[in-house]
Design brief:
With 478 residues, the protein is mainly alpha-helical. The chain is 55% helix and 0% strand. It has helices at 20-49, 55-62, 94-112, 115-118, 120-128, 131-143, 192-220, 224-232, 249-257, 265-269, 292-311, 316-324, 327-335, 359-375, 377-384, 387-398, 420-433, 440-477. Helix 13 packs across helix 14 (359-375). It is globular and about 85 Å long.
């Protein structure tokens, strides 16, 4: 609840244990605090970003260090209150950190939030301005454990910690006494301030990571130079943390996908908000089907999978690095979390239907595997050894009808061009990777592609003959 030094605006109703009035008070505190943060965000954005037209300067603003990287677990750091260099006067101020992350998110969406801004000449300008390095650096900082004092009872925690079923909800700690002078009026005696502010910080970090991943996804699409830049990126020596063993952009993207290892789609969607009950589990047994945090986490994962799919397109060194990082196993589990039997053929559609919130993420997982198999033979062999996965990848490529091909129908009409990665996987399966060999439906996929290629070659030859004949006729007339 927001109040002034004289107590105006404060809540005089004592909290109770039986219900409704106490809930209304908590909701009032939550709404007022978030409303005030939004007002401060607009004010600070007008002061710091108004008139920002230079792309390089805007990118540098996004890439500026996050104040909370200087947080300590036992009280926070107290920087110079009179600092006038534009830096946060109190790095441990939770409100300053929320505002900083929101400004970065707004700038990311403004300068590189659409495909049109990230493709062609726009994408080249962003790369030259250092946008890819900045986006990856921001993602790295959000996942890097905050600087902590060495203490037996405290371990480093990042803004976006790894999510595991049953783990205690470990979140970045802050001291609500460490507010800068500009935000002291937001603190009050109600204990709900900690949870509200902490949840706002975490949700804002999720928004920023999702935006950065969305921009990287679009920048990687159709640009070999941008895909190479992702692989070439590495954390700065000052920020490098050996415990993460992240050496390049591929490692970082893999880490974002693997944040949810062994966490089912339903569990991701029902993740509890940070700060709501720090003594409980991140994934509660009685949690609702979908939470606001869960929806944000699923969107983040979907964007991360989109980056993997686009970054792995026709780029052998990137594909090999993803494979070495163990991402193939992660993606296979994402598509088949319950499938222990790899030899039984699929009898029905394996991919989620249009009503499923994770349908897009599943298709991006399948697309990533197909792209990886195209340029990495080891991936093709691994995927080709799993019969159910083969059916699923065929379905992802050609739809549900593609897994029930009529062997008597040799027409290629309506069939999409066979992706080279899927072709490599099927050939690997036929050449010994798949126990028992290919089934008729799989063989027909390859045979129809061979027929389609022959038809295309014949059409091309006929076109060349027609063109040559037309040239001869023009010469004869002339």
């Amino acid at each position: 609840m927001i109040g002034d030094e004289n107590g105006s605006g404060s809540c005089d109703v004592a909290p109770n244990d039986d219900g409704e009035d106490g809930d209304k008070i908590l909701i009032g505190h939550h709404a007022d605090l978030l409303e005030e943060i939004a007002r401060l965000e607009i004010s600070s954005a007008n002061e710091s970003c108004c008139g920002e037209n230079d792309l390089r300067s805007a990118v540098q603003r996004i890439g500026a260090p996050i104040p909370c990287q200087q947080l300590f677990c036992n009280g926070g750091t107290h920087a110079n209150e009179n600092a006038n260099d534009g830096a946060c006067a109190q790095p441990a101020c939770i409100i300053c950190n929320i505002l900083d992350l929101r400004r970065k998110n707004s700038a990311t969406l403004h300068y590189m939030g659409t495909m049109a801004q990230c493709r062609g000449a726009g994408g080249e300008a962003l790369r030259e301005a250092g946008a890819l390095d900045v986006l990856l650096a921001v993602l790295w900082r959000l996942m890097t454990p905050l600087q902590m004092q060495k203490s037996d009872d405290c371990s480093p925690v990042s803004l976006l910690p790894k999510v595991k079923p049953g783990d205690e909800a470990k979140v970045a700690w802050f001291d609500n006494e460490c507010l800068c002078n500009n935000h002291l009026h937001l603190r009050n005696s109600n204990p709900s301030f900690d949870g509200i502010a902490l949840n706002a910080l975490h949700m804002t970090a999720l928004d920023l990571a999702t935006s950065c991943l969305g921009s990287l996804r679009d920048l990687a699409c159709g640009s070999a130079a941008n895909r190479a830049a992702i692989l070439a990126w590495s954390p700065s020596p000052a920020e490098k943390n050996d415990s993460h063993a992240i050496e390049n952009g591929v490692h970082l993207l893999s880490a974002y996908v693997q944040r949810y290892d062994q966490c089912r789609w339903e569990q991701i969607l029902s993740l509890k908000e940070m700060g709501s009950d720090t003594s409980g589990n991140a994934i509660a047994a009685d949690a609702p089907t979908q939470t606001e945090r869960g929806k944000k986490e699923l969107r983040l994962l979907t964007n991360a999978l989109g980056v993997v799919r686009n970054a792995s397109h026709s780029t052998p060194d990137v594909c090999l690095e993803f494979f070495r990082r163990g991402l193939v196993d992660t993606l296979v589990w994402r598509l088949m979390p319950d499938d222990a039997d790899t030899t039984t053929p699929a009898t029905a559609s394996s991919l989620p239907d249009a009503s499923s919130p994770w349908r897009e993420a599943c298709f991006r997982s399948a697309g990533s595997l197909i792209n990886l198999a195209e340029k990495c033979p080891a991936v093709a062999r691994q995927l080709g050894s799993n019969r159910r996965l083969l059916y699923l990848l065929i379905e992802a490529w050609g739809g549900a009808s593609a897994i029930a091909i009529d062997p008597n129908n040799t027409s290629t009409r309506g069939m999409p061009l066979l992706h080279l990665g899927l072709a490599a996987t099927l050939h690997a399966a036929r050449n010994g990777a798949l126990e028992g060999g290919l089934e008729e439906g799989m063989v027909q996929v390859l045979e129809r592609e061979r027929t389609r290629k022959k038809a295309a070659q014949r059409q091309e030859e006929e076109r060349k003959l027609r063109k040559a004949k037309q040239q001869d006729e023009r010469v004869a007339v002339g």
